[in-house]
Amino acid sequence: MTDFVYLASQSPRRRQLLDQLGVHHELLLADATEDAETLEAVHGREAPARYVQRVTGLKLDAAVARHRTRGLPPAPILCADTTVALGPAILGKPEDAADAARMLRELSGQDHRVLTAVALQHGDRRVQALSVSHVRFAPLSEAQIASYVAGGEPLGKAGAYAVQGRAAAFISAMRGSYSGIMGLPMFETAQLLRQAGFDL
Fold first, then answer.
1. Residue 136 included in any domain
2. Is the pTM of this model over 0.85?
3. Tens digits of residue pLDDT in 147-174
4. Which end of the chain has fewer CB atoms surrounding its CB within 10 Å, N or C?
5. Strand segments (E) across the chain
6. pLDDT, the chain, mean
């Protein structure tokens, strides 16, 4: 039994949420030779839940291989991925500011889902979970969208927004896991960590 977990994610929000759980962690990040973007490619008309679980599994596969190659001490490896779904359409990370504005126009005045898959590898055992939350955006004006995009917050975020940032002012209703919308559902993550022997 170890007293820490490897986190295979660059997200500062996931680090913050693990800290909130009181879980010590070390980063296990990809190097320049790994193509993380290719892992996130959507396959045809893939359902959002299937997509986010598949991508999380691929990211965990890459992290396990990375851990082995680097000869690091044994410890559970945690990985997660988040996507936004508007109906059957997957809204990933925007390519640029114009793409972010397009996504926000689509979300304006609409209900959408935020899906976060979590997977944990502990020795030869892998466990996983899926969190699905529902979010409603109020109607957004072009000025609101332009101002938000200009601030840079949408870039690098699934669905082009961060629930813990300025976009909180756009959300008229929410049902599900706030931490899941941030990128790491704490209830499901704690359940997986307990299975690996953590006392949470």
1. yes
2. yes
3. 999 999 999 999 999 999 999 999 999 9
4. N
5. 5-7, 25-27, 77-86, 89-91, 111-122, 125-137, 171-175
6. 94
- Report residue 116's pLDDT band, with 50, 70 and 90 as the boundaries: very high
Measured CA to CA, the distance from residue 41 to residue 152 in angstroms comes to: 23
Give the domain extent around 65: 5-195
Q: Is 183 exposed, middle or buried (0-12, 13-18, 19+ CB in 10 A)?
A: buried
Residue 170 lies in a domain: yes
How many domains would you assign to the chain?
A: 1
Is 81 labeled as catalytic in the residue annotation? Answer: yes
What tens digit of pLDDT does each residue of 18-41 get?
A: 999 999 999 999 887 777 777 888
pLDDT in the model for residue 34: 78
168-171 contacts: CB < 8 A, separation 24 or more?
170/137, 170/138, 170/140, 170/144, 171/135, 171/136, 171/137, 171/138
Dist CA 196 CA 75 (whole Å): 9
CB 119 within 8 A of CB 56: yes
Is residue 200 situated within a structural domain?
Answer: no
In a domain, 145, yes or no: yes
- CATH number of the domain enclosing 55: 3.90.950.10
Q: What mean pLDDT comes out for the span 94-113?
A: 97
Q: Quick one: the chain helix, strand, coil %, rounded to 5? A: 40, 25, 35
